[in-house]
Amino acid sequence: MSQFLNLLVAGLTSGAIYGIFGACLAVWFRVCNILNLAVGDFAMFGAIGTAWLVQNAGLPFIAGIVVVVAGVGLAAWLFDWVVLHPAFDRGRGARGIVGVFFYTFGLSLVLEGVARAWFGTDVWGAPVIWSGPALSVLDFHVQRAGILVIALAIVSGLALWAYLRFTVSGRAASACGESRLGSRIVGIDTAKFRRRIFIATAVLAALFGIVESPLSGYTYASGPVISLIGTVAAGFASFRRPGRAVAIGLAIGVAESMLGGYVSTSYNDVLLYAILFGIIIFRPEVLGLGAEPA
Q: What's the Cα-to-Cα distance from 149 to each of 29, 58, 103, rounded to whole Å?
């Protein structure tokens, strides 16, 4: 029984990682129909940037968080103004899923290159927010950082779900994804909502990277992997339901943990990619890969 509970907590912790990034992808896709393939790189910058400021620059932990979060928010705003604004608001960019794909994919490559130049190839981890030994009940153990990771994922997923479902601003943001032209006709500023959501999800990803990095550590190349696992969770939530993305992410994490604990850890990555292939084969429409008409 204790093994099952420990595997369950480990699965919920890794699943929370899948879920929170799936939620970030889902909420932004819902607003502007674009995959944010740089969401993992924002998390990487949050974790590594905070660790570097605290360990190398001598900043207090809270000050380091503030500086990094502000920097990530500024980077997201600049990217929207320099790239997304001309492309979507002035009609100067590429159209179609392939062209739009490279907007955030290019941002991911830039952030990865900057991180490698600034921070090198070392593994970094931000300081632990809730320090202390693991909490134990009999043979059941859970890391304090793991509790924070799970709690942040659940609270963030519920908050994003409630925002989109119950607020006027959230419904207006959703309308932008349904019809940009229709939204503009009724007076909704689609550019404003796109920019706000992009900055908010970038900041949320950075905060989550700070909270989670003491458990796993981050390198400059961690971003694409994080974006991939977020894509899996968001895919099963149709890329439009952040609350469901968190729930799906938690379920995937538990399944992966149980498979690794009772069968073999060699199958963890196999499960993740099998799920992604399942989306492509059985639900291609959520990735914009539906069959072309004959």
A: 23, 25, 29
Q: Does some domain include residue 294?
A: no
Residue 287 is classified by DSSP as G
pLDDT averaged over the chain? 82
Q: Tell me, what's the pLDDT at 1?
A: 61
Helices (H) and strands (E) in the chain, counts: 11, 2
Name the residue with tokens 């006027």: 168
**Do 133 and 58 meet the contact criterion of CB atoms below 8 Å apart?**
no
pTM of the model: 0.84
pLDDT digits (tens, 9 = 90+) for 197-247: 999 999 999 999 999 888 888 999 888 888 887 887 887 777 788 888 888
Specify if 51 maps to a domain. yes
The residue segments making up the domain with residue 198 are: 2-131+138-286
**Would you list the DSSP string of 17-80?**
HHHHHHHHHHHHHHHHS---TTHHHHHHHHHHHHHHHHHTS---HHHHHHHHHHHHHHHHHHHI
Residue 17 lies in a domain: yes
Helix, strand or coil, per DSSP, at residue 128: coil
What is the C-alpha to C-alpha distance for residues 201 and 283, in angstroms, rounded to an integer? 25
CATH number at residue 144: 1.10.3470
Count of structural domains within the chain: 1
Q: How far is CA 232 from CA 11, 12, 98, 229, in A?
A: 16, 16, 19, 5
Tell me whether residue 52 is in a domain: yes
One-letter identity of residue 204: L
